[in-house]
Specification:
This protein has 153 residues and is mostly helical. The protein has one domain (5-136). The protein contains six helices and no strands. Helix 1 runs antiparallel to helix 5. The radius of gyration is 18 Å and the shape is elongated.
């Protein structure tokens, strides 16, 4: 398969769906084993942030990630910058959120998200796709991307 503009847009959607799955699919959906649920409840133990601050960061992250994904679907330059800033901030933030405990399905979705994060940043900042983001940043309206335009050869 040759990556196209449409492939990039699908990649952004898959990344966002993996992010939402990690954050919103309740663990009880995957298991009814009380011992596993007790272990998962230990997620965040030893956090440097209080639970109120953790919730605020969580909801801000959900909102900003959704805005960034939507903006990247329409090749908004600010959206790829926001996406990159969120990735860096989340990576640094892992140092403050305590011990992490996750279900294997969360780890699976996290692996998909990690791969699509890297691919999304790579494609958004390299030619030829970056031209659509840059033209919008410069205030000129680029022609709409051809969904079948090949972006990697």
């Amino acid at each position: 398969m040759i990556p196209t503009v449409r492939t990039f847009q699908v990649l952004v959607v898959v990344n966002w769906l993996a992010f939402m799955a990690i954050d919103f699919v309740p663990m009880a959906f995957f298991t009814s084993n009380d011992r596993i649920l007790e272990l998962i409840a230990l997620d965040g133990v030893g956090s440097a942030l209080g639970s109120g601050m953790t919730q605020a960061v969580f909801w801000a992250n959900v909102l900003l990630a959704s805005i960034a994904a939507l903006g990247m679907l329409f090749f908004q330059g600010w959206a790829r910058t926001l996406f990159l800033v969120l990735l860096v901030a989340n990576q640094v933030g892992t140092l403050f959120f305590g011990v992490r405990v996750s279900h294997p399905t969360q780890a699976f979705a996290g692996g998909i998200m990690g791969m699509t994060d890297g691919m999304t940043i790579l494609l958004a900042y390299l030619q030829p796709l970056s031209k659509y983001f840059e033209q919008r940043d410069a205030g000129t309206e680029p022609p709409p991307p051809d969904p079948d335009e090949v972006i990697l050869r």
